[in-house]
Amino acid sequence: MLWAAAGVVALGFLIALEITARGYGLPGPITTQVQEVIVAPQSGFLLYASMALMMVVLTWRQRFIAAGAAIGIDVIIFLVRWAADARVTHGHPFGNGALWVIVAYAVIAVTRRTGQERVLLLKGVGLGLLLVAGRKTGDTWLLITSKTRPAVLDQYVAIADHALGNPSWLVGRMVTATGPIGARFLDSVYTQLAVAAVVVALFQLRNVAAERRFPGHHLVRTFLVIGLLGPGIYVIFPVVGPIFAYGADGGHWAVSNLWPNTPPPLVAPQHMSFDEITPRNCMPSLHTAWATAIFIHSRKGPRILQLAGAFWLIATLAATLGFGYHYGADIIAGVVFTLTIEAALRSLARGWDRSGIQLVAYGATVFAALLLSYRYLPVEMANHPWMFGPLLILAMVSVIYGYVRTTNRWEPKAAPTRHPEREPVPEPA
C-alpha cells in the first residue's frame, strides 16, 4: 500500500510539473524522458546506474542477460545513427538500451509475474525509474525557478558570507590556481554525483535478491526526498550563485565582475533582477546535501566505501565553492537540510519516538533560522564576523552532534558474549 501510494503521488507530481512546464512553453519531465527512448539521453551513465538499481531484485543470470541486452540495443542504435549520419550533438550516444531494459522488466512484471515476485520486480523497476524521474524533475524545477523568480537574493547571501570569510572567493582562487586539470577533475566529481550515490546504494541493496525484500531505509530514499523538497526552497529563497551574480558568467545582469578575485563590498543588500535562463538553485546547496547523504550512508560500508564517501563529500564541497556555484552559507544550509531529512526518514522507518521528533524539529528550526538570518541580518553578520561566523558553524555542528548522538542510540546493541563459567575441579582426597 505504501509503495502504491508513493507511486500515485509521484505520478501526480510529474503530471503537475509537466502541465506547469508546458504553461511556460517548456518540455516537462515526462516528455523529456519519453524522448530518451529514441533520442540521445542527457546522461547515459545515469540510465545505466538506474538499470543497476533495478537489477538488485534479479538473479545473477538475469542481471547478465539484462546488461547484455542493454549493451546490444545501444550498439544497434549507434549503428543506425551512424548509417543515417545522425550525429549526437547533445548528451551521450548510449543509455537508450538501459531505459529499454527497465521498461521491458516493467512489462514482464505485469504480464509474467504474480504475487510477491511481481511486487518485488515492480519495486525494482520503480526504484530505477524514480532515479531517472528525479533527474528530469530537477531539470524542470530549475527551468521553472528561472521563469517564476525574476528577482534573486544573491546580495543578501554574499554580504552574510563575509561572516564566514567569503569561502567561495577563497576556494575559487585555489581551484583557478590548479589550472584546467584540477577543474576537469572536480567537474567530473560534481557531474557524476548520482553515479556515486548508486554505488553506495548497490552496497546497501546487495541482499535484496536473496532476501526478497528491501531494507527499511537506504540512500535512494534520502536522495529522492532531497530532490523533491529542495527545489521548493529555491522558489522561496531564489539565489543564482557568485559566478553569475558577481562573475563574468552573469553578463550584464551581474552586479560587477568580482568573483573570485575581489569579495563584494559591504553595502546594503537589495533584490536584484536576473535573466530568465539561469536557475535559482543555490539555497540550499543540494549537491552538498546529496554528497552529505552519500557520506552518511557510506559509514556502514567497508573501509574503501567509507573513504570514497569522504572523498566525494570533500571534492563536491571544493567544486561547489570553487566553481562559484554556491556561497558558504548555502553549504551550511545544505548540511542541516540533509541531516533533518535523514533523521525524518530514519524515524519513519523505525517508528517515531520522542528523540526522533525532537531531532527533526530541532533541525527544521535551525534551517529556518539560517534562512531568516541570511535574509534579514546579513549586514549585522558581516559587521560582526567574529561573532556570527562561529555562531553559524556552531549551529551546523549542533545539528550534526544531535544527529550522531540520537542515531547512535537507535543502533541495535550487540548482546555481550557469555563465557561459560569453569566448573571447579575437586581436589584429590
Give structural notes.
This protein has helices at 2-23, 29-35, 44-54, 60-83, 96-112, 115-148, 154-160, 167-191, 193-204, 208-211, 219-236, 242-245, 286-298, 303-322, 328-350, 354-376, 378-383, 385-410; strands at residues 151-152, 272-273. It is mainly alpha-helical. Strands 1-2 form a two-stranded antiparallel ribbon. The longest helix has 34 residues, at 115-148. It is globular and about 65 Å long.
The end-to-end distance, rounded to whole angstroms, is 74 Å
How large a portion of the residues is in β-strands, by DSSP E?
under 5%
Instruction: Output the helix-strand order.
Output: HHHHHHEHHHHHHEHHHHHH
In spatial order, strands of the major sheet run 1-2
| Alpha carbon gyration radius | 24 Å
Counted beta strands: 2
Helix content: 55-70%
Low-confidence stretches: none
**What does the main sheet amount to?**
2 strands, antiparallel
Q: Based on CA inertia axes, which overall geometry fits? A: globular
- Mean residue pLDDT: 88
Which structural class do you get from the secondary structure elements? mainly alpha
Number of H- or I-type helical stretches = 18
